[in-house]
Specification:
The complex is a heterodimer. Chain A is an alpha+beta fold. In chain A, strands 2, 5, 10, 11 and 12 form a five-stranded mixed beta sheet that branches. Chain A has a four-stranded antiparallel beta sheet with strand order 4-3-8-9, with no helix packed on it. A two-stranded antiparallel sheet of chain A has the order 6-7. Chain B is mainly beta. Chain B is 10% helix and 29% strand. Chain B contains four helices and ten strands. In chain B, strands 1, 4, 7, 8 and 9 form a five-stranded mixed beta sheet that branches. Chain B has a four-stranded antiparallel beta sheet with strand order 3-2-5-6, with no helix packed on it. In chain B, a hairpin with a 7-residue loop joins strand 7 and strand 8. The longest helix of chain B has 5 residues. The chains are: A alpha+beta, B mainly beta. Chains A and B meet through strand 1, helix 3, strand 3, strand 4 and strand 9 of A and helix 1, strand 2, strand 5, strand 6 and strand 10 of B.
Chain lengths: 257, 178
Amino acid sequence: MPLRGPAETHLRPALPGWRAKIGGVSSLPPEVPGTVDPAYAVADYGSTARRAPSRPLVALPAAATERHGPRFGADRVSAGDADLTRQHPVEPIGERINVSGRLLDADGRPIAGQLVEIWQANAAGRYAHDRDQHPAPLDPGFTGGGRCLTDGDGGYRFTTIKPGAYPWGNHPNAWRPAHIHFSVFGRSFTERLVTQMYFPGDPLLAYDPIFAAVRDPAARDRLVSAFDWETTEEAWALGYRFDIVVAGHLATPPDRR
Amino acid sequence: MTGTTPSQTVGPFFRFGFAWMDQADLIAPGSVGAVTLVGQVTDGDGAPVPDAVIEIWQADADGQFPRGTDGPWHGFGRSLTDDQGRYRFTTVRPGRVDGRQAPHIDVSVFARGLLQRVVTRIYLPDEVEANAGDPVLAALEPDRRATLVAEAVDAVDGSQLAFDIRLQGDQETVFFAW
């Protein structure tokens, strides 16, 4: 995708490498089989420089520890935890949305009764976090954290408000596309996943090094939710759909001793 | 096979979303068999990582995993690092889960700058014989192997363990995939 639009005028010539990569994510080398995607070390995402492991990962012969995983009962999560618009006496500012989908394993089987956690910025692009210094207003009606357990069909559903884009210090005039952070637990330790859900048609996606760190374009697209009439509620909220498919399914069935 | 959803970083601003389950005590401190597990997460410069999420997952003392969701023992803990990159858990010594591998605790690290979690294992320092026969440890060079074995600190009964996690550089912790 070529760079175009107003953002281009703000890009500095001092960053030719950054421009080339973010503007042309589809021309990056294809995923090498057996390597993780996204890779740990990504030049355009500065925080990886001192935190990405420098040694190759070691293949782990799985024990029962990896074949089992934590389970969270209904006692840990209440129904209200899935509605982020009703956590305060006042309602949040912003565009109310329903976000729903299914949690599946790599064979397409639903993962029932597992924990889904989300957290996000408010409609102005500000997190309820003391280290977030973006000069946008906090919202007394919104904290931005929610959780639920998947139903028997792997389904989950949240009501929240659409998060705003926000600036970050990665490079000049850097903006994160609007996103909701997701944390999910599969059936086993190996299926644990933390990711981010993006919104369809967001022009900032083409400029985001975290999104672009996923080299396979088809895999990258799976991070983008779809607008959904079915969960759009008349005179109330727009619906977005985001299915989450966790890798890490081990070939041998879990030891149920 | 269905296309899987890629990982993305946990970012720096997760605390308000994760704190509800900042479950550092897998069992009550001071109870019989309680072990304190502490450590520091550092980056390639040796600087503390103050915005990491450490999760542990382990068998109980008998090598068993919870069968359901009931009961006080979940085998799972989550600790958010402090300004010095330190985490802390109160847990129990894990038992053996099979005849070959030595007792261990699985660890996930999430942080800003980590596009995927890194996974490592904590082995117990006083399980000398079991560790010597462990195929995972045996496959590693000795200096790398040492990064996976906790240190016993300040206690003769093995009830206080330290395990530092070095994301990068000298003495980089061994990280696993499957």
